[in-house]
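Record minuted for completeness.

…
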Amino acid sequence: MDAVRLIVTSRRALATGAAGGGVPDLLTEVWQAQALAQAIGSRLALVGPPQLRDEATGLADLAGHGIGVLERTPLDSGEPRAARLTELGDTRACLMHLGGLLGDVGIALVGIACAADDEATYWSCVEAIDAADEARDRVRDMLRKLADREAAPPRREAV
């Protein structure tokens, strides 16, 4: 499935989890979103534009850290939504949507942290918020690099 479609699906699921689900449902959707960000970062690091590969590796690492600190896996036993990723499509569109998803993840985690009954949940959410925020910064850096590349005058070959 195309990355943008998966991101849109994740954003809807995250909004649904925030609106009506409990904390476990919301944490599942946060986990799913972080797993998708990790998969997109990994894919960009392998096949994306060369000037984005370092930031894409960092994105994958940060999203992986965000998954790890939550110490939760999805409640259902099915495969992660990220496993359905088959193509990135347009890099700019993918990154724009991914930045929005990571912002939504941060907001959801703030809500969970504020409502946390125990200190361990609170601090794991704070750490996951930091990871999501740093991952979003990587996405912004990649978007800037794409814009700079497009704004640069075309290179002419010597004759």
Observations:
- The longest helix spans residues 119-151.
